[in-house]
Amino acid sequence: MIKKYLMVLMKKELYYFFYLYIKLFISLLLLLYINNTILNAQWVRCKNGIESNLIYCFNVISENTYVGVDGGIYMTTNNGNNWITKNSGLELEFYPIQVTTIATNDKNIYAGTWDDGIYLSIDKGENWVRKSNGLPFWFWGLDTVFNVKVNIIITNGNYIFAGTDNGIYISTNKGDYWFPKNNGLPHLDTFNMPIYSMAISDNYLYAGTDSGVYMTTNNGDNWYEKNNGIENLRIHSLAIKGSNIYSGSEYGGMFISTIDGDNWKFIGFKNTIVNVLLISGNNIFASGSNLYLSTDNGISWIEKNSGLPNLGVTSLVINNEYIFAGIWDDGVYRAKLSDLGITDVKEPEQTNGIKIYPNPASDEFRLRFYAPTETTVQLSVFDLLGNKVLSRTEQAYEGTNEKNINCEQLPHGYYYVKININEIVETIPLVIIK
Description:
The chain is mainly beta.
């Protein structure tokens, strides 16, 4: 009897030790998996200094990364290791300001907000001044006025476009006054439809709405519907790559068209939200709840989510070798482009590439170029016999510059334009038509 009892007891002890062994083994495997996941994660959280988790937008200005959040604007000079506030003039008395979009034009930085209009900084975000005269607004109670939400700001030379929850507004005087530019855009009763996204290339400006894509070639004087082939019309993202334009729908789907927007072709994400599009060189990033990368113009896509929480990407930006992602209610994440398998890490615009448009031109053309520092640019126009027929000296700021060049005195014909930027000289053919 005692012997039998001892055998049962030994068997129980063996089972117990076996159970502990299995539990320890599983725990070690789990620990190794977690450590391996952390060590090999492509994305890491980097919100040191940012008090809010609600991230709305990014922009890169003078090599520094700016982020708009529920609480203002922060900037990093060390690739997201630390962020500092840039809110002087943005503080509201009763609640934190929500910065939904950031755009730059020469030395001017524009910040669009959820319900307090647009702000301007001329000193890299050190100080902000409200510039909302002419923007639509609504009343709360008897004495509280809110501007409608500004979803996106985009610039084209002297033109500043603001896409709001009540249509598009334009300023040509650095935000001192905003004019509606909604002729041809969809509307409901007395309200214009919200504008969720915009993209621009030369004189082609696109807007994404609840009723699809609209295009203007005259800075918003007239808009035309461009939806042939688009299945889901709530367009929350637009991006241009060369002669192609891409659109992403909040209802699911991504589409591609040539720059005229006449015909769209479905290229993927049928049941997946595409709220964010970012193009850098040959790389196209598309995101909604997950992040995808294409290196073949959207033919195939690879998930690039390792380390990202599944909460939704609100914004993306690239600064040199890093890409930053804003995550809804979880702050800022970053990854090295090389860790995502990308080697062409520089933005194509960050070069001394020079562009002239429209070409052919009539009374004026625009000169677009990138200057690494403040400098003086010399422009000369020659006829086919080598005679200099026009000469201009322009002051350039650090970053992307656009200058309007008046050529109405030049007769119809063929010319070439010589541009000298920091002793880098480029010559571009130009056609003048009358």
